[in-house]
Amino acid sequence: MRSFFRSGGRRKLAASAILVTAALAMAGCGNGGATSGATDVKSGPPVDVQASAWSSLEKNANDEGALTIYSSMGQQESEPRLYGAFKKAYPNIKINIVFLGTGDLINRLNQEMSGQVKSADVVMHASPGWFADTYKAGNLAALQISPDNQSAGWDKMLDGNSYATWWGFQYLLGYAKSQPAPPTDLKALLDANPHAKIGLVNPHVAQAVANVYETLRQTYGDGILDQLAASSYTIFNSNSQLSSALAAGSVDYAYPDQVNTTGPLIVKGAPIAQEATQKAQAGANYNVAVIKNAPHPDAAQIWANFVMSKAGQEAIVQDNAPAGTVPTSVPNAVPWKAVNFLDATQWTTDKWNAWISKYWTPRFK
């Protein structure tokens, strides 16, 4: 599992360094007349902002009055606590959300950035490789860290990158309420019910899914894949399809299940439930970053810092119970270090394809 708590990689600026001249000297670029912290520093490593400069940034953000967020985080029936908490803290900043699946969102972002289209202010999705590549290409604004987030240890967690891994989720075991509540261990379920009618997600659709099955294999050995292959399984090409099938009664169990696709169906009254397994915990995490040419750069910095803040971290855990996890200390969160997150540097395309050929294809048709 990858650690996000390595040291180093930050720059400190005194309050006066937020001014245009110093920012140009340290960041190596500017926008020729910007007056706020966010627009002064265009790209590069994260920057610590002192209290007076942060107050000015908040004022400028309120004056901008709007914020466009590109997100692949699942929609919920009621307003997520995260957005409600932000509106309470910053009532003068209007939130506009563009929601797309991660793959579609990345395609749109890449097209807009290549065409110098100013649309997104902030981006949040679950593809860490995209953030790393986009940051290296200089297309993300330098993330400015508020005094409160400095105190919370985010300089260390960022490890010199201007994108924050701010929350993650554990994949869950979904089940129909017509069935007995399953044990919090997938192997125990299959031991007790070897022909369980279970829905699976195709690992061809994402490295994160392959990582789930590999986590099972590392925990229990190859036999767990044999047990899944011997069950009454149905393979689906997305978590949305899997959740719908579970709600419709086409399958009795669902794995790996996501809170943001099944949760809304539970809210609507579907006779299904979810639980977090206690072994072989696998998941994916979300990053947040400010786009370099954001139309509302100060509001974008406020949002990025808010989701990293205590209030934002608590809200996202509540929104994603029982699967939510964050790198800070929040009650009722799944322990961050207990989850085997997708590591994009390890799950290269070659490894992904090789894993499928060796472990999946011989067992599942």
List the keywords.
alpha/beta, D-Maltodextrin-Binding Protein, domain 2, ABC transporter substrate-binding protein, 16 helices, 2 domains, signal, single chain
Topology:
Blueprint: E1 11-12, H1 20-27, H2 37-40, E2 47-48, H3 51-64, E3 66-71, H4 81-89, E4 94-99, H5 102-114, E5 122-125, H6 128-136, E6 144-145, H7 147-151, H8 154-158, E7 164-170, E8 172-176, H9 186-192, E9 197-201, H10 207-220, H11 223-230, E10 232-236, H12 239-248, E11 253-257, H13 259-267, E12 272-275, E13 282-290, H14 297-308, H15 310-319, E14 324-325, E15 340-341, H16 349-360
Helix pairs in contact: 3-14, 4-15, 12-13
Summarize the structure in words.
- The chain has 365 residues and is of the alpha/beta class.
- The chain has 2 domains: 11-168 and 284-336, Periplasmic binding protein-like II (D-Maltodextrin-Binding Protein, domain 2, 3-Layer(aba) Sandwich); 170-283 and 341-360, D-Maltodextrin-Binding Protein, domain 2, CATH 3.40.190.
- It is 41% helix and 18% strand.
- It has 16 helices and 15 strands.
- It has helices at residues 20-27, 37-40, 51-64, 81-89, 102-114, 128-136, 147-151, 154-158, 186-192, 207-220, 223-230, 239-248, 259-267, 297-308, 310-319, 349-360; strands at 11-12, 47-48, 66-71, 94-99, 122-125, 144-145, 164-170, 172-176, 197-201, 232-236, 253-257, 272-275, 282-290, 324-325, 340-341.
- The strands form 3 sheets. Strands 3, 4, 5, 7, 13, 14 and 15 form a 7-stranded mixed β-sheet that branches.
- The longest helix has 14 residues, at 51-64.
- The protein is elongated and about 60 Å long.
